[in-house]
Amino acid sequence: MACASQTIEDIAPVACPVCCQKLAEDGSCPNWLCRDPQRRISRIHAIAYLSGSLRTRILRYKYDGAYGWSLIFGRLLLGWLEQHATGSPPGLIIANPTCVAAGEPGFAHTERVIEVAAREDIPGAWRFDTADPRAIVKTRATAKSARNTAPAKRAAARELRSALRIPNPSRTAGRHILIYDDVCTTGSQLDTVAACLLDDGHAAHVDAVVLARAPWQGRT
Q: Which domains does the chain have, with CATH numbers?
């Protein structure tokens, strides 16, 4: 994490305690999710903001076939866990599930980072979900959320809920679950995944950690 901090934009010392968004001038979070009384996810942690070289590397990894970055992202995840989660380790660390339709571009980019992190975790200190099937699966492709407007992201999240399935609730029941994803803009999809884990998987508590928090201004 020390080397990475030289090339990434750290989360502001005073940021939203729920989603890590930069606060408005009045000290409030502009993200609608943090004010939603029906929010299911407890907190969305972020390693850095989506800017500069980190943004470029994430885009190359997801869309240009630069798969080697999964090793760096997996190590960043491990570094964050060692710095922030040793006192209260999650019961299971899962990927925000992907589903790539036949013939469509893309790959299981979040699952690959989880697999790499598990392999790099030589002491076996963390419970990464690398089982087949995963603790939560996405059964079909749904509307894309990336590079979309906030209302479109919320609509995509509603569609996502019907595509999620918990194959074996005993793996998540009563556990603190940590969801990994690469980017958070509004948190709508992460909140939907948390709802499935809580309602169908009977998880006790759900948080998330992302590589990068997209900073923006204005309320949604």
A: 18-213 (3.40.50)
